[in-house]
Amino acid sequence: MGHRLRIAGWVAVGVVAGALTTVSLQTLARGAMAPLPLEEIQQLSAVFGLVKTDYVEPVDDKKLITDAIAGMVASLDPHSQYFDKKSFKEFREGTSGRFVGVGIEITQDDGLIKIVSPIEGSPAFRAGLKTNDLITRIDDTAVKGLTLNEAVKRMRGEPGTKVTLTVFRRDENRTFPVVITREEIKTQSVKGRLLEPGYAWIRLSQFQERTVDDFVRKVEEIYRQEPQLKGLVLDLRNDPGGLLDAAVAISAAFLPENVTVVSTNGQLADSKAIFKAAPDYYQRRGSGDPLRRLPAALKSVPLVVLVNEGSASASEIVAGALQDHQRATIMGSQTFGKGSVQTVRPLGPDTGIKLTTARYYTPSGKSIQAKGIVPDVMVDESQEGNLFAALRVREADLDKHLGSGQGEEKKDEAREKAREEARLRLEDEAKKPVADRRAPEFGSDKDFQLQQALNQLKGHAVLVSKTLTERKEEKKDN
């Protein structure tokens, strides 16, 4: 399979370098290493020697080396990082969709830990933590100054142990502690149901090892209940990504056989690959086509895909493929914009690095890195609007983010003005009762975007966004 992506290590397309990043295992013998810059290596050696002899107190050799590696990798982009023994083990545990922790997807925001989304049913979810909450302390340790990896390590632990998170909730302008008991997180990445006769909703919260099989079972269940399905909503909101082969499989479930789902391109010859809607590109070794049981009608059922700023990477692959092939109407708000592929390469039996090795492209050849998927129909989160979208963090907001490689737009001054207006609105919103500000649960009868998706499928009028506009990539300073 020379045309497939074959990079040493695990290929990851998840957005979050932390609580639950998942990957797929592939192998390749590495070629010769590039020559080392002698002068710079000598300088590094000199600094190492100075620290060892002149620093105020003795420093462990191993710590100096591992910190130098971690700093080198972390300086590249927000998604590349070094794994020590413990974090490497935790990272690999994520491929099964099981780990011990509090159950949140996280990223960094101005030195703090920002919750992308709590995992449904997790201790953090039950404790009431919400998207956009900021974690300022983990037990007695201030988060400011910690790397994302260090923060994750402090939140992980043994089942049954407790961790205290200090949380700042911007929309309520308050800081409060939350005591959470760690437990094994068994994420259920697929849920769904019939909304009404003829119409169904399936939500994917993550792309994991079990996602494709669970998706097939859910589709079978829905078609048993409703053999004459008239329309389906595929909900990818707040889906941070995960396994590349799972994203290809979910796309293939709806697309004609052998059409392009996604392509990748990087410095290595083997990172230049095309993935198609065919079993060879997504089935696991030693197993058959996981999609073989799907009803043929799924290929043509009218389809709406819901996305938002929390839809990233693998979910953007699916949305981009279905949009480019005009198989679905994409609705919601512009996605996160993580169009890069990470590869985890072992450095030994129990350490490794996660390195950005390629960009991925939609079937039409568009890079969505730092751009995202722009919906066909922009829809607000509520009937009253989506007044705070300008404040939401996307890939383009992250320090050292990778550019799209397809030219960059100038900084959007109008966006800066929108940010300030949103901040003022947020102050007014904070004065309202908490119950009035709580976003409805995805899939509930109060889910405004889902109701608009149903209207789209039925051919009824859709209430398009009053506030959302396409967000361009901002030019990076050199």
UniProtKB/TrEMBL annotation:
Keywords: Hydrolase, Protease, Serine protease. Transmembrane segments: none annotated. CDD domains: cpPDZ_CPP-like (cd06782), Peptidase_S41_CPP (cd07560). GO terms for cellular component: outer membrane-bounded periplasmic space. Belongs to the peptidase S41A family. It comes from Verminephrobacter eiseniae (strain EF01-2). This is C-terminal processing peptidase-3. Serine peptidase. MEROPS family S41A. InterPro entries: ClpP/crotonase-like_dom_sf, CtpA/B_N, PDZ, PDZ_sf, Peptidase_S41A, Tail-specific_protease. Residues 400-447 are annotated as: Disordered. Residues 88-156 form the PDZ domain. GO terms for biological process: proteolysis; signal transduction. Pfam families: CtpB_N-like, PDZ_2, Peptidase_S41. GO terms for molecular function: endopeptidase activity; serine-type peptidase activity. The lineage of its organism: Bacteria, Pseudomonadati, Pseudomonadota, Betaproteobacteria, Burkholderiales.
